[in-house]
Amino acid sequence: MISNHTSRDIDVGVGRRKEFIGVSEGDWDQNTRLFTESLRYKSIAARFKHGVPWEETEFFDHCMRKIQNKGEYWHGCTSKREVMNRFAYVEDLYENIKENGYKSQPELRPQHSATDYVDELLNEILVDIGRDGEFLFVDGRHRLAIAKILGLEKVPVVIDHRHKRWMEKRDQYYLDQRYIHPDIPR
Q: In the chain, N or C: fewer CB atoms in 10 Å?
């Protein structure tokens, strides 16, 4: 399961479509941080592992400060009520995954029609692959947090960027047929 955040600069807002999927050089895969140390993961874990009310989580406080300072935050929320509605969505997502298992966007498509194919991909858990083949978290934090809290061993992901060095190794590993990795077709 994915352990670390990518350190690649990413636009996770509406501009993320323009840089979606690619190969990149650099050290963005070297200075990673643990996903489980993120504010959002800790708050989601507090809620679902320990029953802490959303209003008592660090992420709730963070949302309220952002709204106070910038007018909106977290999918355009501008008020406490809107933030609580987003938390209700996370609650529903948790219950759905807990009861029905983790489903990919195509599996959910009959229930929720996506705007288009790219939007569907962008709503999955997105990962980068570093130079040594490590999957690094990009986006989909609620789904990944819930999967970790529920102890799921595997979830579907969409690869956003691969490190250039990984691509070189990947090609060689594919030709050798000795290296097993989810990013190497068999």
A: C
Asked if residue 148 has pLDDT above 90, the reply is yes
Is pLDDT above 90 for 10? no
* Domains contained in the chain, number: 1
Bigger pLDDT: 170 vs 1: 170
Is position 16 within any domain? no
Q: Which of 3-12, 24-33, 35-44, 79-88 has the lowest mean pLDDT?
A: 3-12
- Spacing of C-alpha 62 from chain mean position: 19
Residue where the block lists tokens 């949302």: 63
The domain in which residue 82 lies consists of 4-10+21-176
SS3 96: helix
pLDDT tier at 179, thresholds 50, 70, 90: confident
Q: Cβ contacts of residue 177 below 8 Å, gap of 6+? A: none
Bridge partners, residue 135, by sequence: 129
In a domain, 184, yes or no: no
Does residue 181 lie within any of the structural domains? no
Cβ distance 161 to 16 under 8 Å?
no
